Predict the structure.
Amino acid sequence: MPPENGFEALDVSKEVLRALNQMEIHTPTQIQSETIPPMMAGHDIIGIAPTGTGKTLAFGIPMLEYISLTETRVQELVLAPTRELAMQIVAELTALARFIPQIRIAALYGGQPMSRQINQLKRKPQIVVATPGRLLDMHNRGHVRLDQVHTMVIDEADEMLKMGFVKDVTKIIELVPPARQLVMFSATTNRDVLTISWKYQQSPVEITVEATRENRPKISQYTMVVPREMKMGALQYLLDSDEYDRVMVFVNTKFMTQRVADRLAKQGYQAQALHGDIRQSQRTRIMNDFKRGKFPILVSTDVAARGIDVDDVEAVINYDLPNENEYYLHRIGRTGRARKHGVSFTMMTFQESVRMDEIMKYMDTRPTPLHFDENKVLRTEDDEAFFKTI
Ligand code: ADP
Ligand code: MG
């Protein structure tokens, strides 16, 4: 007998249970146990839950229960704001569908030749995961039909609508049959999310998971005031203070991202840059190499900050304070995933420290301040030398 699995009580099929067991996922998170039953019952859903609480499986599991393997048109559609997130959702759904080999999933996103994606569509996928722009493009060219979609999921709805996809998303909703099930997931609510819900959902079941101590990732957060010209030295100090297998360093601009990565590489660190000026195929390769542990330090703009799930990122270092408050949470949320412990360091110039106060208020947390003394030794407020990180 397989071990007791908490998903059994949620009426999940044996194929999916087997896959979950293999993924070593045994107990549903709150958003999962509250979403799966109403979603399987066909209700529209609006789920608001902090990052890292397992939203992908919350919609992924019910999706797989609803596929008709004999139907050849697209039945289920997931919209994601970025290519990286779309690829990750495909990876998670593929793992979950491991024991249902007839399921075919296509990924449609920009930055990759259409031809390859058209080939995927020719294989008659039941599920399409897409970014809005590319999906509309493919639809307009007649490569994909959406008139048999019975379930549509909008992941990271807040982010998607903030990125100016409101029109595209609306168009897509109007392309699928009006009787479809519409499921929206978001880390936060904003006016656009509520408007779409109000316009297009029918008596949605609302599920809110508060950011509690319990589900909030366990991250030791540190801040330090560092003048701009000292940031590179401070970064190296932090990288040297522990032996990290995976660290993400966030930088605000593409130019500086490349520069920081190049300088680290020159100093002998195994570091790679990820930003929007790098070709998509290369970005995918870098991301996968990082996930597989081929190199330990990924220097990135916020491109990689949202939704991407890399296991076991031990530390997140903010080389710059993010320009938008909520990105602080998305960035540090790359560590401490799935109930593991993580650490984050945020460097800020003196001017930026005012904004950090704002972020702390917004996040309702209080990172521990550190400072470099005159000998450039990192110390706590009690003047203890700081070295142990995790
Ligand atoms: P979110 O979309 O809410 O930010 P994800 O769906 O990306 O979160 O999940 C975050 C991580 O948690 C993933 O690595 C996922 O495999 C893992 N995870 C999801 N559900 C569970 C669970 N029930 N038990 C343990 N780990 C889980
Ligand atoms: Mg997610």
